[in-house]
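Possible race condition, two jobs.
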Amino acid sequence: MTTPISPDVLTLPRKLPEGGKVNIVGLTRDQLRAALITAGTPEKQVKMRLGQVWQWVYHWGVRDFAQMT
């Protein structure tokens, strides 16, 4: 019997956020950029804000904007 090198991936269903909020976890950079623009981020700041939010969410694991300083 052989053991697979990598385990099977299990995709869990997402819980949709309440109150019309957008869940940004799992978005690609392009999707996150679009979400920032939709949220009213000025065009000149989109690239900078995208990098900031990406790091907070995907590097440091922060899931609450109130924790982003």
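Job #2 (started ~2 s after job #1):
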Amino acid sequence: MTTTTATTATKKTTTAVQTATKKTTTAVQTAAEMTAVTRTTSVQTVTERTGARTEEAAGVISGARERIDALDDRIIGLVQERMAVSAVIQDARIESGGRRVNLSREMEVLAHYSDALGKPGTALAMTLLELCRGRI
């Protein structure tokens, strides 16, 4: 490699490093600015976050929301488990020459949810059946 070629290669490398450094610096500054904005906008009192008018009510609401979040996580896990079991049933039914969906069984599920939860239960059962149907 000649001196001119080496110098040109060094200049190109230096330029590339400088460009990458500028991009990284800009990205870091942008991230820092966004974090600062987020901190500024998310600094709310407990009563503002919960909509409560007193600190006592806000404490009750915060605790109850944490419990609801934990329940939601469990419900999601159970729905995912139901989907997996449903896939096993569908697999067995199809492999034996049957249809993917058993409408009489779905009607039983709809009735069960409707009896327990009323009209919203029927809607919930429909959603569950939709999630579990045809996952194979």
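The mean pLDDT is 80.
Logs attached separately.
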